[in-house]
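Sequence design from tokenized structure. All designs in this work follow the same two-part layout: the structure record, then the generated sequence. An example of the structure record is given first.
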């Protein structure tokens, strides 16, 4: 997929088919990077009465509880809330969409670095990312004014993927380097080190404060920064994207299946039909009061024409109330797909399904997960990954599509962190499209 984009007075061509992730994958089963003496990020099966959370242990599907410290376990994006008393969610600050960026490779200088300093002063053996090194690597000309900067430190070894940064102090920014980034108009900084400040710096976090424009000691904190441990169950807590590994004995990480880049997509709004739905069924049979997303409803909402063959489908169930954002779906059974609806999606060439319900199957369905199996092409009762006919397919559940989004064609980007596991928290982004003559 190729696109032309206007940046200021320039029109640039972009290859959207082959984006490159620069995130370090966090493998819960293998070696991991870590920082500041933090424990390993961990994953364990979620257990509930009658449910063991692991196909290997006899459960109908895998469902894991993840525990990690974002600031210490793997690639993470932070905001000024890292340093303030008032909470600020990073996801509310991280911009949606594409940013003009520059990638620089630099050698960190051994401390002390002439004409540059840190606060407190660097210790013997420290290596510094200096303004001098950044200026020397900066391209003489770019097709735009970059808003984002990626800094790659040299040497660039694969050891960075699993390094324990608690053992040896990694490179960090001088004050002058941080000031240069601000002067250069950089708003989004991406680095391959665990912190832009020294891990043990008496709580100063000077480079952070310069970059965020936060005055020195502007808040009185019991700690120098916020650093939280997160525990979540992706399948049960919020928007998540899953793969066929949800149903198989052999592990498969969703982040390795989720496609990078933009996908042609269609958004449909449908009324779920009360069960039973004539000519459509589920396995096991639906219970009284259940509401079904039927093939009939999907066919009725499908646009007569689209500018492309969609690979992704978004299903918005009606009524579309804001209560979906905070609903406890354990209280009342939400709508789910009939077998015929799942079969229709496969016939229509849909590989990536995004729904605003917590599961495309009934929560309590005797472990059948029939719609999942149809969509992933996994035979009934099979738990073998090799048996799946559609291992590249993904399902995103518990999304929310606001009313301001009209039904029709879009491009969608399935943004997801590089976390191990058959499901990961995700942020599907929709891009409106317009047809323009050349």
């Amino acid at each position: 997929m190729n696109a032309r984009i206007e940046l200021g007075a320039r029109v640039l061509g972009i290859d959207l088919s082959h984006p490159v992730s620069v995130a370090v994958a966090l493998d819960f089963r293998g070696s991991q990077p870590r920082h500041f003496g933090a424990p390993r990020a961990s994953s364990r099966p979620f257990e509930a009465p009658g449910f063991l959370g692991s196909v290997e242990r006899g459960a109908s599907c895998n469902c894991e509880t993840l525990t990690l410290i974002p600031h210490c376990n793997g690639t993470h994006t932070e905001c000024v809330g890292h340093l303030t008393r008032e909470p600020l969610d990073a996801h509310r600050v991280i911009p949606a969409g594409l940013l003009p960026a520059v990638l620089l490779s630099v050698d960190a200088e051994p401390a002390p670095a002439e004409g540059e300093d840190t606060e407190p002063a660097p210790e013997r053996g420290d290596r510094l990312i200096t303004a001098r090194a950044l200026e020397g690597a900066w391209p003489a000309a770019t097709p735009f004014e970059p808003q984002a900067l990626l800094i790659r430190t040299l040497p660039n070894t694969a050891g960075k993927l699993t390094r324990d940064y608690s053992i040896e102090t990694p490179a960090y920014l001088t004050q002058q380097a941080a000031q240069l980034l601000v002067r250069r108009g950089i708003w989004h900084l991406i680095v391959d080190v665990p912190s832009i400040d020294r891990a043990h710096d008496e709580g100063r976090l000077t480079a952070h404060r310069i970059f965020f424009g936060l005055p020195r000691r502007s808040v009185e904190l019991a700690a120098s920064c916020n650093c939280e441990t997160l525990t979540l169950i992706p399948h049960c807590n919020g928007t998540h994207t899953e793969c066929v590994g949800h149903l198989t004995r052999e592990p498969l990480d969703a982040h390795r299946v989720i496609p990078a880049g933009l996908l042609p997509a269609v958004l449909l709004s449908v009324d779920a039909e009360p069960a039973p739905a004539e000519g459509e069924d589920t396995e096991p049979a639906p219970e009284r009061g259940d509401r079904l997303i039927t093939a009939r409803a999907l066919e009725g909402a499908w646009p007569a024409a689209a500018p492309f063959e969609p690979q992704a489908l978004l299903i918005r169930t009606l009524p579309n109330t804001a209560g979906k954002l905070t609903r406890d779906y354990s209280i009342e059974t939400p709508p789910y797909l009939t077998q015929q609806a799942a079969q229709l999606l496969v016939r229509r060439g849909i590989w990536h399904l995004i729904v605003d319900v917590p599961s495309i199957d009934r929560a309590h369905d005797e472990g059948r997960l029939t719609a999942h199996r149809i969509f992933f092409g996994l035979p009934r009762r099979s738990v073998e990954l090799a048996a799946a006919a559609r291992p590249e397919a993904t399902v995103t559940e518990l999304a929310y599509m606001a009313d301001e989004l009209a039904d029709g064609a879009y491009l969608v980007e399935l943004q997801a962190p590089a976390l191990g596991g058959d499901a990961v928290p995700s942020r599907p982004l929709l891009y409106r499209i317009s047809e323009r003559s050349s």
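The mean pLDDT is 95. We note this feature because it recurs in several other targets discussed in the main text.
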